[in-house]
Amino acid sequence: MHNARSYILPLVMLLGAAGSTAALTVWGWDWLAARDSSTRVISIMLGSCALLGAIGWLVLVSLKREIGRLSVVIEDAATEGSDHGIAVSPWLMPLAESMTGVASSANAKNTVLSTQMREMEIRMRLSEVERAHTEAILDSLRDAVLVTDSFHEITSSNRRATELLGIVSDDSKRAHIHQVLGATDIEGAIGEVLSSGLPNVSRHIERSMATSLGEGVFDITLATLPSADANGVGGVVTILRDVTREKEISRMKTDFVSQASHELRTPLSSINAYIEMLIDGEADDETTRQEFYGIIKAETERVARLVDNMLNISRIESGIQKIEPTEVDFVKVINEVKESVALRAEQKDIKIVTKSGPLIYTAQADRDMMVQVVLNLVGNAIKYTPEGGRVTVEVDSDESSRAVLVSVSDTGLGIPPEAVDKVFDKFYRIESYKRVAKGTGLGLNLVKHIVETMHKGTVGLESEVGMGSRFWFSVPYETDTG
Amino acid sequence: MIHKIVIADDEAHITHVVSLKVSNAGHEAIVAHDGEEALELCLQHEPSLVITDLQMPYMSGLELAQKLKDNQSTKDTPVLMLTARGYALDQHELDLTNIKKVMSKPFSPREVMAIVTELLGGASEAENRNAA
Fold first, then answer.
1. For position A263, what pLDDT does the model report?
2. Which residues 275-294 of chain A have a CB within 8 Å of chain B?
3. DSSP secondary structure of B40-101
4. Are A330 and A437 contained in the same domain?
5. Is A271 on the interface with B (CB under 8 A)?
6. CATH number, position A353
């Protein structure tokens, strides 16, 4: 039906044009015959032009309509699921078929490309998440991590590296490792690892270096990273672990062992020498022999005391020692200590005086440790106070700091000003005291540890050479044992 | 022959046992409790031998030995060092002194006496050579 209609219009138009042309020809011929030859030529030319224009216009109208139909048909072929039910004229069918084929194929390719693009977008988002995870993991490390390329330029670094080495993040310009590490030989080590040319090569070095956070000792791991083609080396990852604290602890332990062994050797020397003298019969009489036995016993006790103190301090320092807090009555503690040192005080004719206010002075503390603290302070006071002197032990309370305050004053030698800050140090002994009495150099250190480390209290002293000393400590009413 | 021997240590038990050992061997023991006292006694008595500890108040055993070497009257006096810290001594420092032997604590009085006899023998030979 549609096809038949499409033929009628051009046919009617063609017949109309033929009729009009015939009529015009008949009429025009007569009219031309009455004119001169030049007028006839012009008239024929004008008539032909008009005729050709009319035919051209008709053809153009027809073509425009067919092209419109053709574009709808191609669009239907290119768009999946679209069909306007329009057909083109038979003379345009070959062109329409060819173009709809091309459009269908383009449509199929477009669908594949869209799917691939969606997949790419998902992959990109996943890799973005993975990158963020990796960055977060690296930033959470306590070690500084630096990645350098084959030109020794920093391609990435974690947060710790930024803090430690003061790296300024600038995407437009990569910092050279030399700018960051300065004149250390780490750059050389990175170069050596890089020049190995092998992936998965690693090396450890230890260096002392200045950082933005101060001087420190670092355990440095250098490892090669594979290149993009996985056959060579593309860069080096440098991991800096701060071992300053570990080194310091290790040094302190070595010093402690060295100092302790020295302190133990002295009494052991005496024990060994006097035993050998007894074996060799160098002690002639019973009095000398008894004297030797006494020395051996005293020096053995000194070794035992030294070992006990060292173990106690070591346990407190390593956090193994726990306190068992009970309600400690400090008046009872000082009376107990007074009783245990009574014989020693009597031998030197030293008077022990205890003083306390009318209140009951109690604190949550480890009772045995409090006895040890008071005993060490009173023991020292007796040791370094000349015969006939006086030692005063006083208990009071300090309401402002909510603590029990115990002080031990003596009429002894006094402590030189330069030694005041050192007397609580491990193994420290005042030179001039060595001739007066024996000591391990650990008693006051233990006092400090028990009071400050274990009970969150305070120790202190006031002294004047020749006038005596006053050692004191305070323990809070409530000790936080956590 | 009776020799004067200065024994210096801040540990009274050590000076006591060493002085008893050398006295029993027939020598005269002179006891000092620190480095300064030891130097004073050495200059005063010009002993044949000095037995000293390393770590002492006021003046260390090493400083004492250096001062003895620097002094005309004691420049040849041999020194025996008894120390709990023998490892702390540098051979270069020892070369500047007359420290002939370093014994580590704990020590055996028997071995100390053997070294004393050896060093005094050496000293006697030197004296004899000088006399000749």
1. 80
2. 276-277, 280, 282
3. HHHHHH--SEEEEESS-SSS-HHHHHHHHHHSGGGTT--EEEEES-GGG--HHHHHTS-EEE
4. yes
5. yes
6. 3.30.565.10
Q: A6 pLDDT band (50/70/90 cuts)?
A: low
What's the domain count of chain B? 1
Find chain A residues with C-beta within 8 A of B58's C-beta. Answer: 431
Contacts of A50 (CB under 8 A, 6+ apart): none
pTM recorded for the entire structure:
0.58
Domain count for chain A, please give it.
Answer: 4
Q: Are B106 and A276 in contact (CB under 8 A)?
A: no
Q: What are the tens digits of pLDDT across the range A297-347? A: 989 988 998 888 888 888 888 888 888 889 999 999 999 999 989 888 998
pLDDT the model gives residue A3: 55
| CATH code for the domain in which residue B113 is found | 3.40.50.2300
Q: Nearest CA of chain B to the CA of A346: how many Å? A: 23
User: Which of A457, A353, A454 has the alpha carbon at shortest distance from A398?
Assistant: A457
Out of A261, A299, A434, the one facing B57 most closely (by C-beta) is A434
CB nearest A269 (choices: B24, B34, B106): B106
Q: Which domain range does residue A63 map to?
A: 1-122
Range of the domain at B84: 4-131
DSSP label at residue B33:
S
Task: Enter the ipTM.
Answer: 0.88
Nearest-angstrom CA–CA distance, A340 and A34: 166
Domain's final residue, options A183, A211, A242: A242
**pLDDT tens digit string along A214-226?**
888 999 999 998 8
Same domain, A389 and A431: yes
CB-CB under 8 Å, B11 with A273: no
